[in-house]
C-alpha cells in the first residue's frame, strides 16, 4: 500500500464534485441521444453511409469552431461558457424531440440539429477541461483526471443503456425527453459552481492566441505524440459508429444496441476506478502504446465475432484499453500545460481526439458502403496497430516516458 496516496483527494472539493456531476449528466444525455439518433436514422434509411453522415454533421462545426472556442475559454469566464454550451445542447435535444413528435420523415433536419449541437459542444469541452484544472490544486491533477474520466465512463455506460431501453419500450419521443431532462440537470449543476475565473490580462487576437497554443504543443513532443497516437487510433477504430448494423447482425434491436454501445464504457469505468485507487504508471509511455495496441486487437476481434455475448466482452475489453490511454493523455496535458493556456491546448486536443471520433464514424460509414461492414472494421483495427508501430518508432520520448509528473 502506497503511503500518503489519497484516492478521493479531488472529490473533497465541492466545486469539483459539482463539475463532474454536470459532466456526467451531460454525457448520459449525449450518449443516450447518439443511440436514439443512430437507430432512428438507420431504421429510416438502411444505409451505413447515413450513420457516417451523423458523425460528419457533428465533426465539421466541431473542427471549425474548436480553436476559437479554446481562445475564448482562456479569455472569458469558463463557467459561463460551460453554461452556454450546455444550454445549446439542451435546445438541440428538445428540437429532436419536437421532430419526432411531429412525425417528420426526412433525416436532413436531424443532421442540421446535430450540426448545431456540435457548435455547442465545441465551446463546452475546452471550458470544462480548463475549469476542472482551476477547481483543484495542481498536485492532485492525476487524481482529478482519473475521477473525471471515470465519471465520464460511468455516464457513457449508463447513457446508451437508457437511450436503447427507452427507445425500445416507450419510443424515441420519450427517449429524447429524458435526454432533455439530463441536459437540464447538467446546466443546473454548473450553475451551482461557486468559482469565478479571472481571464488572462494580455490582449491578443484569435490568430496570435492559437499560434501560441500550437507553438507550445510543438515544443512538447511527448504531448504531441500522445495526441497523434489517439487521433489515428480513434479515426481508424471507429467500429462503434456501425453498431446499429452489428446489432441487427447479432439478432437484437434498439435495446441490444444500447447494451452494445454501453459495453466499452463498462470496461472503461471498471479500469478507471482501479486507476483512481493506484499511484500513476511508472512506465507511462509503454503503457499508452500497449493500451492503444490492445484497443486495435479488440476492434479486429469484434469484427469477427458472431455471438452477442462475446461481442459484449470484446467491447468491454476495448473500453479498458482505451481508458488507460485516456487517463495518461489527460494527465499529461493538464500537468504539462500552464493554466492560462489550458483552454487553447484543450481545444487542439479536442480537434485531435474529439473530432476524430466523428470523422472516424464518417470514415467507417464510407468504407462500410464501399467494402462492406465487416471488412471496413477489420481494416480499421489493422490500421490502428500500424499507427501504434509507427508512433512507437517515431517518438522516442513517448516510448521512454516514465512517470507523467516527472517528465
Folded structure, characterized:
The protein is mostly helical and 407 residues long. It has a single domain, classed as MFS general substrate transporter like domains (Growth Hormone, Chain: A). The protein has 15 helices and no strands. The longest helix is centred in the N-terminal third of the chain and has 32 residues, at 14-45. It is globular. The relative contact order is 0.17. The mean pLDDT is 81.
Average residue pLDDT: 81
N-to-C order of helices and strands: HHHHHHHHHHHHHHH
Q: What is the terminal separation in angstroms? A: 24 Å
Instruction: Give the class-level CATH name.
Output: Mainly Alpha
pLDDT < 50 runs, ≥5 residues: none
Structural class: mainly alpha
- Main sheet summary: none
Overall tally of structural domains: 1
Strands, total number? 0
- The CATH topology comes to Growth Hormone, Chain: A
Total helices: the number is: 15
Q: What is the name of the CATH architecture?
A: Up-down Bundle
Shape: globular
Give the amount of beta strand, in percent: under 5%
Radius of gyration: 20 Å
Q: Any descriptors?
A:
single chain; 407 residues; mainly alpha; Growth Hormone, Chain: A; globular
